[in-house]
Amino acid sequence: MTNARPSIFDPDSALAVGIGRLLLAVTVLLVWQLGAGHLFDIFFFGKPSLIAVSIFNDLRDPGFYRDLGVTGMEFGMGYVIGGFAGIASGVLLARWKYLAKLADPFLLALNCIPRIALAPMLIVWFGIGMSSKVFLSATLVFFIMFFNTLSGIRSVSPALCSVAKIQGATQWQIFTKIMLPSASSWIFTGLKMSLPFALVGVIIGEFMVSSVGLGYRLNAYATAYNTSAALGMIMIMMCLMMLLTWGANALDARLMGWRDDGGDSASAALKA
Amino acid sequence: MDVGQLEREAVAMTPAEISAAGAPGSAAAGYLVLNNIAKTFVARGNSTTALQATNLTVGQGQFVTLVGPSGCGKSTLLNLVAGLIEPTEGTITIGGAPVRGTDRRIGYVTQADNLLPWRTLRDNVAFPLELAGVPVTERRERAEFWMHRVGLSGFGDAYPSELSGGMRQRGNIIRTLIYGPPVILMDEPFGPLDAQTRIVLQDLLLSIWEESRSTVLFVTHDLSEAISLADQVVLMGTKPGRVIRCEDVGIERPRDIFQIHEHPVYRRLYKQIWNDLGAQVKQAVE
Asked: Whole-prediction pTM value?
């Protein structure tokens, strides 16, 4: 079928897929735009043209960049702290069997706390400044990174370790040259999965109490029933996260080129 | 000592071993010596004897093949010599020094290629040198030399997932040869390969071995492979795993592996060992 008659209706052709996607997006936006005021209430659902105007206004507002900076800083710190702590704990527990057995039920219990429920307590503990948002974001990232690192190191092939041992590798060499690289695809998958969670933590924290940040700005628009501006903020957040994810995927493809199973480890990590 | 044990020992000893074991200077005659080795595994309260009262003497520079049905303890024997596991009884010595734990005097070519998937072929081949702290330019040169020797020039930058099974297995073999261990263990290295690739690699292995003359212990299922390659074929039996007998292969070297099946000595040995091997295989299946 693929080589019989190449046409744009061939479902495998990149052109057909591209055109289809464009048509879908344009149709949704057109229905939304033209139906606003008739099919949907603008008060609740906004209108694409109004959203575009409010995004444009936001992007011209110096206050937006201050909010972006603060949220970006909280996001970055939460991601780095949570990621680093998660990887380090994963490595520690993978290496130290007794500690792993000891900590296992407690970690499971901690992971079962809906992290968002911690938000009010975090504000009590860390105050209304940046640190409560950073911490909430870090706890979300931590457990993803922790479990992924642990599973990654535990799934290292014992045969690869034995071969290295026979070739004269020390325990440290086995750890740095076999275990860590072998777990790296799990760790990378975790780092990609954590990106949106880190932002969720920050935004929730900003919803609770804050006077600055993208979450604060979104909350301010929504409580003022400025639907178009609020939806505009959501779209800005969406675009920022898409950019980050795209960057992470590009980095992943570059560094993990040796992996022949494509995204298999991602689904394995989700099951773990 | 009960009668059963006497019987088992009588079965386990071959004339060659009895003479070697009987001589006080047997360490000189044998480079790799397994002295009355037994290995019992205990799992969930059940103990399984994988290997029992095994004696084996391999001279320096000898190529010895181990052949036998599944469950005859061939792999256990290799793991014991490699120092990955410890014998329940008996001692293993190499050049008079006992084996304690893993040791760079011993190289081990596994059945699965076990190349590191995140390293290029060149870095996989050079890995043992990297572990030993050999400078990067020297280890690259030596890796290139060996890749060239086995027809892998130009594949240095490929990842294992980009290579064929035969190429990966060649990589697996040369990454052991690159650090020149005096004893090389091979666990069915050509097992997963197709018949043509297998015979080409057998030929390649023999021609490399002719140059280095390291001591080789080579496990295989394939009697034809066992006779073609070896100075000595060791037939192993099952339930429990043990050495049944050793046969010297008196075929001159260098050998033409593609024509060796015509050789009268090959044919005679094949027929002789096949009868015993067949009996062991049947017993293993029952």
From this structure: 0.75
